[in-house]
Amino acid sequence: MAVAVGLALSQAAAAAPPDNPNPALVPWFESLKQPGTGAPCCSIADCRTVEFRQDRDGYEVLIDGRWKMSSPFWLRVPSNRIIDKTENPTNRAVVCFTPEAGILCFVRPPES
């Protein structure tokens, strides 16, 4: 578990900040913890609002160029990475992702 925490923290330091980050959301992003371990989901630098789709098997998110990926692709969200938060001030789905570690956390958008 210590290795996973170390990996998550090292990934946060290497990540680029998102385009036009909202400083008011920093505390919310920093409050995100990985389900099961309680390790940080990383920082606002690794978490982005994303396009998502849901099917009977769960969720998929669109990983695109904001993470320095060569071409966009859909990635299945592991069920153990879904955070059961009821509030989401972004009003969109949020994924915390690094190319090295994959999906660290996923927050569903608020229900309409």
Short description:
The chain has helices spanning 2-14, 26-31; strands spanning 47-50, 52-55, 58-63, 73-76, 82-83, 93-98, 102-107.
Please describe what this structure looks like.
The protein is an alpha+beta fold and 112 residues long. The protein has one domain. The protein has helices spanning 2-14, 26-31; strands spanning 47-50, 52-55, 58-63, 73-76, 82-83, 93-98, 102-107. It is globular. Mean pLDDT is 79; it is low at 1-17.
First-residue to last-residue Cα separation: 37 Å
Series of secondary-structure elements, N-terminal to C-terminal: HHEEEEEEE
Strands of the widest sheet, in order across it, are 1-6-7-5
Put simply, the count of helices is 2
- Sheet with most strands: 4 strands, mixed
Fraction of residues in helix: 10-25%
What class would the helix/strand composition place it in? alpha+beta
For the residues shown, what is the average pLDDT? 79
When the domains are counted, the total is 1
Give the amount of beta strand, in percent: 25-35%
Number of strands: 7
Low-confidence stretches: 1-17
Indicate the radius of gyration in whole angstroms. 13 Å
Set out the fold topology.
Layout (H helix, E strand, L loop, with lengths): L1 H13 L11 H6 L15 E4 L1 E4 L2 E6 L9 E4 L5 E2 L9 E6 L3 E6 L5
Parallel strand pairs: 5-7
Antiparallel strand pairs: 1-6, 2-3, 3-4, 6-7
What are the key terms here?
four-stranded mixed sheet; alpha+beta; globular; about 15% helix
